[in-house]
Amino acid sequence: MNESTTTRLTEGERRLVEVNGIDIIDEAERTAKPVDLFWPWFAANVSVFGISWGSFVLGFGISFWQAVLVTVVGVVLSFLFCGVIAIAGKRGSAPTMVLSRAAFGVNGQKVPGVFSWLISMGWETFLAIMAVLATATVFQQLGWASGTTTKVLAIVVIAGLIILASIAGYHTIMRLQSVLTWVTGAVTIAYIAMTWDQIDLAAIRAIEPGPVSAVIGALVMLMTGFGLGWINIAADWSRYQRRDAPGSAIVFWNTVGGALAPVLLVLYGLLLVGSRPDLEEGIVNDPIGTLATILPTWFLLPFLLAAVLALVSGAVLGIYSSGLTLLSLGVNVPRPAAAGIDGTIMTLGAVWVVFFAQSFLGPFQSFLITLGVPIAVWAGILMADIALRRRDYDERALFDSRGRYGSWNWTPITLMIVGSVVGWGLVINQFADEAAWNNWQGYLLGLGLGGRDGTWAWANLGVLAALAIGFVGWLVLGRAAVRRQEEGIVPTPAGEPDRVAP
């Protein structure tokens, strides 16, 4: 286990650049309160991009009231899952993917760790791309230059902000998030006030209801797009919580901070897009820029600033945590360097999409559902693992493959494989033209669900199945293993006597 040198730095130095990597947070630094979790989660999700999700939800062909139901249930439930996993951070003082070593083994954790790193990289790159495209669109509306030079400069500024804040680390990010919350929140409220006259209740009431399969499809999309998209980093921010912080308070503030803004913003998006269906086509390729087209010119710059800052806020959380995941996979560099590596990859990805890709939203959503399946299995396993444990983690054993958590725990790894195979068989690539590389999915839909062309193909049942397989499977099969771990019994090869950890 790496030993933190933070206690030998001055207070100012510690708060300028966080030197903690995946090592255990020193007790003296664990001063955060549960309410502090509200700020990073709220700031990362109070983005006008949430309004665009109204278009994605109604795109499933469901009514306004059906959309309201799935929005509230899907967003709140998904962030509730994040809150449950955040409890592990308090119990173990380590990042999320290090804590999952207790279930998967110190080396076995690299299996879900790879998927976690990929989905984090995808999200942060996506947020950076949207910020660049929104800048170009707003500049065009203002009559300013909006071509290649503007996009290049936007990428440089946006990527620079994300990388620098991520390198600075926890203390700087927490301060920034508390400030950004007020800025982005105020401008978002102003946006709603300025576009409220666009709402047409008659047009909204006229939207026809859709089948149950479409309702479930919209529900799963919201769950993967919000809470499940963050769940693999949920304990990264709670590891600075005091040990005596109530688990219920951590779950509550995590859930409220994450879900409050998205619920309100998606609901408004349903009203706006339901009234103005002509916005849907533009939202597909430039979600935030399209929302700016209905604003008065004088408000475009404040809107752009708030939109970009909100996206940067979300990407900063992603880069910070993807850097920690990279370290948990065995990359031996300081945490700031890991954030720099991931920031460079993010920048290259943004350049490719902005200047060379024909469409990015379709491939991104296809990518999101594909990676969402194994992450859902992992999330189910980790939530079950947290429910089974009665004691704090053995922090030293999280870094020692010879300790009580072992090196490779094959039961959860097998569950992850089975859950992924079943899950991928029950989802389809909904963007077959833009992401033809993903057309292999849906191979189980022919078993009584109408095949790839049936109505249930769009329900994304595979994500729910994967989550259930992970949770129920480990709740049943992992009980004995967790009890042995908490008794200090170290896994040994078959035929050898058990031994107790020192």
Question: Can you describe this structure?
Answer:
Belongs to the purine-cytosine permease (2.A.39) family. One of its GO terms (molecular function) is transmembrane transporter activity. The chain crosses the membrane at residues 38-60, 67-89, 114-140, 152-173, 179-199, 211-231, 251-271, 307-331, 343-361, 367-388, 408-428, 456-477. Keywords: Membrane, Transmembrane, Transmembrane helix, Transport. This protein is an all-alpha fold and 502 residues long. Helix content is 64%, strand content 1%. It has a two-stranded antiparallel sheet. Helix 7 packs across helix 18 (361-388) and helix 16 (300-328) packs across helix 17 (335-355). The chain is globular, with a radius of gyration of 22 Å. The two termini are 16 Å apart. Residues 1-16 have low confidence and may be disordered.
Task: Write the SSE topology.
Blueprint: H1 11-16, H2 38-45, H3 49-58, H4 64-92, H5 96-99, H6 101-104, H7 110-141, H8 148-168, H9 170-195, H10 201-205, H11 212-225, H12 227-230, H13 247-275, H14 280-285, H15 287-292, H16 300-328, H17 335-355, H18 361-388, H19 410-425, H20 461-477, H21 479-486, E1 489-490, E2 499-500
Antiparallel strand pairs: 1-2
